[in-house]
Amino acid sequence: MGDGTLDKLTLNDPLFAAYVIAASLTILKAVAMSWLTVVRMVDVKGGYRSPEDIKKTPMNPAPDPAQLLPNERVERIRRIQINDLESLPYFLVAGLLYILTQPSLLLAQWLLYGYVASRLLHFVAYLTGQIHEIRATFWTVGSLILIFMTVRTLISAVGA
């Protein structure tokens, strides 16, 4: 990259800053799912996964083998987290590679923040048990953003 593109990877570059904000928000959302899983398990006193989780402790004074059974409130959050873990790496890589192509700032902001918004809306739809079509619509928006950024990056790389 003789054009100094890597030199622009600072928070002073609005393109990189937009990526950093979007990436940070998606990472924080994904990490929050772990915490929400724990909150749900404590709330329902169940949905645990490991046998050692039902040993008597101050946090679990009355252990019961039924605590190892799936609990829908806990499993719903786990499914959201799995979905995040499946899509987050693609976004982190695709977004970074995309901004290296030096797209217009406005388009990059729309795509990066649009992806964040689609993931947050997907989360709300999943958490509140909306019909599949609603959740799938938000997932599709995010997926199309990833495809667009990746294809634009590929075109830039091939044309370089």
Average predicted local confidence, pLDDT: 92
The number of distinct β-strands equals: 0
Distance between the termini: 10 Å
Number of helices: 4
Overall geometry? elongated
Structural class: mainly alpha
Strand content: under 5%
Question: What share of the residues lie within helices?
Answer: 55-70%
Please give the largest β-sheet: none
List low-confidence stretches. none
Report Rg. Answer: 20 Å
What is the H-and-E element order?
HHHH
Structural commentary:
With 160 residues, the chain is an all-alpha fold. It is 69% helix and 0% strand. The chain is built from 4 helices and no strands. The chain has helices at 14-44, 72-99, 105-127, 132-159. α1 packs parallel to α3 and α3 (105-127) runs antiparallel to α4. The longest helix is centred in the first third of the chain and has 31 residues, at 14-44. The termini are close together. The model has no long low-confidence stretch (mean pLDDT 92).
Any chance you could write out the topology, listing elements then pairs?
Blueprint: H1 14-44, H2 72-99, H3 105-127, H4 132-159
Helix pairs in contact: 1-2, 1-3, 2-3, 2-4, 3-4
Give the key terms.
mainly alpha, 160 residues, 69% helix, 4 helices, 0% strand
In short:
The protein is 69% helix and 0% strand. With 160 residues, it is mostly helical.
